[in-house]
Specification:
Oligomer: single chain
Helix content: 25-40%
Order of helices and strands: HEEEH
Bound molecules: zinc ion
Number of helices: 2
Strand order of the largest sheet: 1-2-3
Shape: globular
Number of strands: 3
């Protein structure tokens, strides 16, 4: 991710950085409501990240759960 690709919610941004550190791919979309995706390349699964989640903590938790399920896929 480039510097312009940070998520505005710091809890979500931190989770996205953990995802990258775990070897998952983080892609930023320019869609207004959808920030982007966290993708597990080996198994092709992904989780959608929204730009303005109702709960930043909940969104971060979803990303962390995805990391736990996929960090051993590669
Ligand atoms: Zn996976």
């Amino acid at each position: 991710m480039g510097l312009g690709d940070r998520h505005q919610k710091k809890d979500v941004e931190a989770a996205l950085r953990r995802a990258e550190a775990s070897g998952l791919k983080v892609t930023h979309d320019k869609n207004r409501h959808r920030w982007g995706w966290v993708i597990c390349c080996p198994c092709k699964e992904s989780v959608t990240v929204y730009s303005t989640p109702r709960s930043a903590g909940g969104a971060a938790h979803r990303v962390d759960a995805f990391i736990r399920h996929h960090r051993n896929c590669a």
